[in-house]
C-alpha cells in the first residue's frame, strides 16, 4: 500500500486512467469487430462505410498511446485488405 500522500494520489490517478484506457480499448475492439462483421455479411457498401468510421477510431486511439501506432497500422491494413477482397 502507498505510504506517502503523493503515492496515494498516484494510485488513485492510476485507477482512473486504467478505467479510461480500458473503455477506449473496448471501443477499438468494437470498431474492428464491426468491420469484420460487415465483411462477413457480404455487403461491400456497408463494409466500406463501417471501415471509414473505424479508421478514425483506430487512429484516435493510437494518437492517445492506448495502442502502438504500428499496431494501429497493422489493423487498418488487414481490415482494408478484407474490404478490398470482397466481391463487388
Automatic annotation (TrEMBL):
User: Which GO MF term does the entry hold, naming one?
Assistant: structural constituent of ribosome
Q: Name one GO biological process term.
A: translation
Recorded hits in SUPFAM superfamilies, A to Z, give:
Ribosomal protein S20
The answer on whether this UniProt entry bears the keyword Ribonucleoprotein reads yes
Compositional bias ranges of the Basic residues kind: 7-19
Please name the InterPro entries in this protein's record.
Ribosomal_bS20, Ribosomal_bS20_sf
| GO cellular component: a single term | cytosol
Question: Where is the stretch described as Disordered?
Answer: 1-23
Similarity comment = Belongs to the bacterial ribosomal protein bS20 family.
Q: Which NCBIfam families match?
A: S20
Q: Which PANTHER family match?
A: 30S RIBOSOMAL PROTEIN S20 (PTHR33398), SMALL RIBOSOMAL SUBUNIT PROTEIN BS20C (PTHR33398:SF1)
Query: What is the role of this chain?
Result: Binds directly to 16S ribosomal RNA.
Report the protein name in the record.
Small ribosomal subunit protein bS20
Its taxonomic path starts at: Bacteria, Pseudomonadati, Pseudomonadota, Betaproteobacteria, Rhodocyclales
Amino acid at each position: 500500500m502507498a505510504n506517502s500522500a503523493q503515492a496515494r494520489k498516484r494510485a488513485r490517478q492510476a485507477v482512473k486512467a486504467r478505467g479510461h484506457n480500458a473503455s477506449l480499448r473496448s471501443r477499438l475492439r468494437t470498431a474492428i469487430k464491426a468491420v469484420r462483421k460487415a465483411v462477413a455479411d457480404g455487403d461491400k457498401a456497408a463494409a466500406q462505410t463501417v471501415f471509414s468510421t473505424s479508421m478514425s477510431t483506430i487512429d484516435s486511439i493510437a494518437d492517445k498511446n492506448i495502442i502502438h501506432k504500428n499496431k494501429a497500422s497493422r489493423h487498418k491494413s488487414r481490415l482494408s485488405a478484407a474490404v478490398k477482397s470482397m466481391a463487388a
